[in-house]
Write a structure and sequence with these properties.
3 helices
């Protein structure tokens, strides 16, 4: 599935993912060096994913991440779930530490 996202500068980019639910990307193909680039050095293609939660599935479950500034050089870990519906809930509501008022 192809999803179109816009960067803050207005440029539009296509991203491939297995599917998406309520603006949550599931198993997206991330740009090169996505989790190895300083936030201030990110190209527009990376920035189109800013604030867009995504889920990565594996044999161990579902990892929820988001490029939100919680880490200076990679997407932020928002949580882990055994089931896809729980992962989608985390992605839609944010990580538990946001909701509890804690620091990133």
């Amino acid at each position: 599935m192809i999803v179109m996202l816009s960067s803050p500068s207005g440029k539009k980019f296509k991203f491939q993912c297995r599917t998406h639910v309520l603006r949550v990307l599931i198993d997206p193909i991330l740009p090169p060096r996505f989790d190895d680039t300083k936030n201030e050095d990110r190209p527009d293609r990376h920035m189109a994913l800013w604030g867009v939660p995504f889920i990565v599935s594996s044999e161990k479950g579902f990892t929820v991440r988001c490029l939100d500034g919680g880490a200076w050089d990679r997407s932020t870990w928002w949580g882990q779930a055994d089931h896809i519906l729980e992962a989608i809930r985390i992605a839609r509501t944010g990580p538990a530490y946001y909701n509890a008022g804690g620091a990133k």
